TrEMBL record:
Species for this entry: Oceanobacillus picturae
Family, as annotated: Belongs to the sigma-70 factor family. ECF subfamily.
Keyword terms: DNA-binding, Sigma factor, Transcription, Transcription regulation
InterPro entries per the UniProt record, alphabetical: RNA_pol_sigma-70-like, RNA_pol_sigma-70_dom, RNA_pol_sigma70_r2, RNA_pol_sigma_r2, RNA_pol_sigma_r3/r4-like
Ranges where the RNA polymerase sigma-70 region domain occurs: 13-79
Gene3D superfamilies xrefs: 1.10.1740.10
Annotated signal sequence range: none
Identification of the protein by name: RNA polymerase factor sigma-70
Lineage: Bacteria, Bacillati, Bacillota, Bacilli, Bacillales
């Protein structure tokens, strides 16, 4: 990349920076860590690189590219959040399964909170023994610590796809009936 081209892009960023903020506000996105703004800058760079003047004005192309990239990122983060919540619910459901006495009108807990905590620690310990190191890292960081896939990948110095693969392997094991029996989730 030439220095002139980079300087030209810096000038375009100065002129169009408000365009990114406009789309963030228009899409009602919360951006405390400036990740949407960064995505908008990347989208602007890609639009700048692929722009063809004979197909229309650059501003229209910027708007189209930036908006669509921000929508894609918002959808992706929403999907990851839902997946994380469902994984947490699934683990909690299995950990608490069978912990109630059913009566005619109401159900009451068999164990106290302290006992539930001990059982939870016990289940996590058994689970840790049954998983590979990477699979346990996914459980610990993603489920217990509620970290994002990207944060785990950075911390473990690997790709996001590798971290996602660890999660898929864990989910597959958790669905396996024999594995669930070994964990004593169903008693």
């Amino acid at each position: 990349m030439t220095k002139k081209r980079l300087e030209a892009f810096e000038e375009i960023v100065k002129q169009n920076e408000r365009r990114i903020h406009f789309h963030i506000l228009r899409l009602n996105l919360s951006d405390p860590h400036k990740e949407y703004f960064q995505e908008g800058l990347c989208a602007m760079w890609n639009a700048y690189e692929t722009y063809e003047p004979d197909k229309g004005p650059m501003a229209t192309y910027f708007n189209y590219t930036i908006r669509n990239r921000l929508v894609d990122l918002a959808r992706k983060q929403g999907r990851e959040s839902r997946n994380q919540q469902s994984a947490c619910k699934e683990i909690k459901k299995h950990a608490n399964d069978g912990n109630r006495i059913k009566r005619a009108e109401a159900s009451s807990e068999i164990l106290s909170n302290l006992d539930e905590e001990r059982i939870g620690i016990h289940v996590w310990g058994i689970l840790k023994q049954e998983l590979t190191d990477n699979q346990w890292k996914w459980v610990y960081y993603y489920i217990i610590s509620c970290m994002k896939i990207k944060e785990i990948a950075i911390q473990e110095q690997t790709s996001e796809e590798a971290v996602k693969s660890w999660g898929k392997q864990v989910r597959k094991k958790l669905r396996n009936n024999d594995f669930q029996k070994r964990l004593n989730l169903y008693g």
